[in-house]
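Work package 3, deliverable 3.1, input record:
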Amino acid sequence: MERLRQHIEHITSLTNEEFEYIQTHFTKKRVLKNQYLLHEGDDVKNEFVVLSGLYKVFFLDEQGREYIIQFAKENWWMSDYQAFFQEKKATVFIECIEAGEVLVSTLETREKLSAELHKMEHFYRVKLTNGYVALQERIKLLLSSTPQERYEAFVKLYPDLLQGLPKKLIAEYLGVSRETLSRLYSR
Amino acid sequence: MERLRQHIEHITSLTNEEFEYIQTHFTKKRVLKNQYLLHEGDDVKNEFVVLSGLYKVFFLDEQGREYIIQFAKENWWMSDYQAFFQEKKATVFIECIEAGEVLVSTLETREKLSAELHKMEHFYRVKLTNGYVALQERIKLLLSSTPQERYEAFVKLYPDLLQGLPKKLIAEYLGVSRETLSRLYSR
């Protein structure tokens, strides 16, 4: 749980007493390679804080084609946030690519900690602000950019993933063909 | 300013004293048709709460082609949020399509009111949550959907804009050609 504390204190400092209380709302869970933390159609009860490992959040269109919304690594939060906040059924999958550990939390925890501790409302607001900015960046890239620009944005966002990830996944994330990706690599 | 109060109280109730204090941080401004509230390259000092009128947030690629990120109408908030939060130069434009009024605020106000009033930190968190969900929805649509699905999502999001907006702007927002849009209309 020390990792959670560092993560929160990166944004707002906590007393020992506050952290003792906060941590009771999170549960640690081991995740195995290829395990699904979320499947389309599930009730979305949880959000996850990544302690270790690598995960992908994706959805399938009607033809079964896969689209990757994000990869998540250490200190990233992940869920089907649309469904999580609106208490609807999942429309995305979360699959583990490299085994690791996550902390599991709930919407009730998010709302309760925010109401009880101004500091935690601040923490969640700052996390959301960062998330909002990242999504806006992704929209601008999707709307306009060339494969070259998308690739550069990917390298910037996930510098340490470039070697480890199968090229197939990177191509899906960028929305380009394998051939286009190979051309980008060779530059 | 009564409109601002209703807008905030939709999320959290305020005492008269609190609202008196909050409203001193917002300035009302009239905006004329075709006026720019933000231009690429500007320092992004402000965010805007729309009281009336209609606005578009867009950017230009290197070839000068225009891409619309969002339309904003009554009660919507708008800025180049990426630049606003990170205190960078604007990469987008905000132009007034139909004259109206906005409230002008700053990042300093957002942070100050959030720090001083737990209720306002809550208000901003909830607004961000809604914004985050909307952006995620837009990403999923951009990644996968057919022009037909994008059009339906647009109709759902902006039911009252369909008649008033030039078809050219709707086509730009959807990322489809004018011809494709005409086919969608005729269905």
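Residues 2-107 of chain B form a domain with the Jelly Rolls fold (CATH 2.60.120.10).
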